[in-house]
Every structure is written in C-alpha cells, then in structure tokens.
Amino acid sequence: xxxxxxxxxxxxxxxxxxxxxxxxxxxxxxxxxxxxxxxxxxxxxxxxxxxxxxxxxxxxxxxxxxxxxxxxxxxxxxxxxxxxxxxxxxxxxxxxxxxxxxxxxxxxxxxxxxxxxxxxxxxxxxxxxxxxxxxxxxxxxxxxxxxxxxxxxxxxxxxxxxxxxxxxxxxxxxxxxxxxxxxxxxxxxxxxxxxxxxxxxxxxxxxxxxxxxxxxxxxxxxxxxxxxxxxxxxxxxxxxxxxxxxxxxxxxxxxxxxxxxxxxxxxxxxxxxxxxxxxxxxxxxxxxxxxxxxxxxxxxxxxxxxxxxxxxxxxxxxxxxxxxxxxxxxxxxxxxxxxxxxxxxxxxxxxxxxxxxxxxxxxxxxxxxxxxxxxxxxxxxxxxxxxxxxxxxxxxxxxxxxxxxxxxxxxxxxxxxxxxxxxxxxxxxxxxxxxxxxxxxxxxxxxxxxx
Length: 451
Hints:
By secondary structure, the protein is of the alpha+beta class.
C-alpha cells in the first residue's frame, strides 16, 4: 500500500513539472527575457487576476508604464537647479521618488505590443519610440519654461512694488511649472540673452527670504502671574528695510497656548498681539513672532516638494522675554481668635500652601489676595470625666480690590479631652489639618480658574 502511494506521488510530481514546463514554453519570448529594441523604450507589466478584468488589466498597464518610465533616465546637469538644491540642502529623496510619475506625462505615444494571460495572471508589453518620447517631452518642456518665465517676470514686478509675499508666490509657481525638468538645463531667452530660468527662480526666492525680517519694539516685559501684560506687543515686518504688508505672522508662547496666534502685517508692516493673561508658574517664558512661510507656501503651490524649498529656509523670529512675578498672598486672622501659638501655626500652614501654589506669602496688606480667617471654640458636652469643644469658623478669599472671590463656612469640628485645654488642642489640630488639606487649596483653585 505504501508503495502505491509513493508511485502516485512520483507521478503527480512529474505531471506538475511537465505542466510548468509546458506553460513556460507557451509564454512569449518577451516574458522570458525583456526585449532590447534599438530606438525604443520597453515596459513589461503584470497583475494577478483579482477583481474584474478591467481592474487587473488596469493594474498591469500601470505596472508596465512604471517599468517604461524606469527605462528613461535623466542625468543631473551640473548647471541645473536640482544640482543647486543638492549642494545647498543635500540629496532630496522625495523628489527622486516623485519624478518617475511625471515621466509618464510623456508616454502618451506608447504602443501596446502584445499581451498574455493564464488562469492566474495577466501580462502586457508596451513600447514607445525614443524619438516620439523626446518630441513630446521637449514640447511640454518649452511650454513649462514659458510659464516659468512669465512667473519670473511677475515676481520681479511684485518685488519692485515691495510685495514680497506675492513675489514669492510667483517664484514658487514658476518652479512648480518646471518641476519635471529640475535635473536638466532650463535655458530661456531673456532680454536677448540666455539664462537658466530654474536657477534664477530659486535665487530670486532666496533673495526675497533673505530680505524679510521681523522685529519687536519691546524686548522684555514683566507680568504678574494671573494678570495680562499691560499693552499690546508690537512687531514690525520689513522687506529691504521697508514696511511689508500682508505677511502672515504666527505667535508662539513657551508657556502654553495663545488666544490669538496668527495675524497678517498691516500697511505699515505692524502686527499686534493683544494682552493675554499669563498663568505659567515658571519665572521666565517667551513669546515669539515668526514669519509663517508654511502659510505662504501652501497658498502659493500644491506640490509638497516645491513647498519644501521655502520651508527649508528660516527667518530669525522676534522674541519677547517675559519675567513672571508671583502674586502675593496674605492671611488676616480676626482678633481674639487665637490662643497661645495658634496664630503662628496657622500662618505656617498658609505660608507652605502659598509657596507650593506659586505665591509669595506676606504678613501685611496690601496684597494681591487675602485669606480672612475667623473661628471660635465653644464648650460642648461633658461625660465620664471627658469634656468636648466645638470649633466653628469662616474663611474668605478677597482680591486686592477687596472683592470677595470665595467663602467657606467651617463647622462640625469637635475636640474631646480630659480638660478644656486638651479638647481645644485636638479641635484646633483637626481645624488646621482641614485648612491644609482642603480649604486653602479650594481657594487657590478658585484663583487659578480665573475666579
């Protein structure tokens, strides 16, 4: 029985091998070895038979066109704008990845030579005349160069009118128009002489960015935490020392978010950041005003590679340093409340909470915030040789204008001991603990929440 199965397996294997050989022999020669044809670019593509026939045929065509475009290699010209970009920023991989797709724009004259299919897959064979490809590419290149030249001229006029944002827009659009040819020479006739429009566009963009500046009129301010800086921060955008209108500026604050974080410069080149409340517990923060190149680029062109050319540049931001002062806090205890060292012990608790909350504790008014505390201790019941006392009180928080921010009634505190002194001590300890763990923090939270 085992011998029978062994013979069966040998026969099946032999049949499968014969079938594979037969299928291979049936394949056209262009599948076995990619053809090399003088004067032509060749592309072979394939796809698994998944989905409808139109879907897998389309995938095979796409694969063949990608193979065809891979046949077309462009040598980097030493005078090209791409060469300039590489020297300035290093190798730009994203460009290399996307340039292959633009090659397909010139493959409109390709010829479907043959196709082949079996039960599982579909293959297709394309070719295009190198002469046809070169003609179509040159025609489109000349159209792109003329568009780029027109954009360059428009940018020059905008520069003369002190409109740097508009000039940058035209230069970026010009570079986008000739993106497929950035590795090549991009010569045009300009003022009766030849010039490389790609390099001139790139150089003009660089020069505009180098001439853009933003400055602040106030280098440093002092602010008390919980308050806003007194007046608007003023920044000025200049282009070649002239006011620049309509330049997008972005504000950044190291201590968190700003209510207003973007603004365009006005006709005099100014942008203003309105007063905002500072809540940071750090002693130093800063606000930066940055020319928003990302916004200029995104509104100028769609191509992310071309946008990236401007985003690789940096313009020195204008920085305002902020020194943050801690608000002051005082404690006012009603007369005839304390016995012994109770007042000093209460002050110690408030001082610790003030420091932990980022406040400066002071002994006398005026202060930014004042906790007013009153309490009294009344005898309670006595039984079994023990006496009790009840402590009741009130804590109130006011600001520097004496406006009440928060109040809290304190009750339910009882002390029991062998005598009145011990009972009062225990009630006071519980009272002090409640202030430390709950009530003072509730008042500070009210301040931090902006009342």
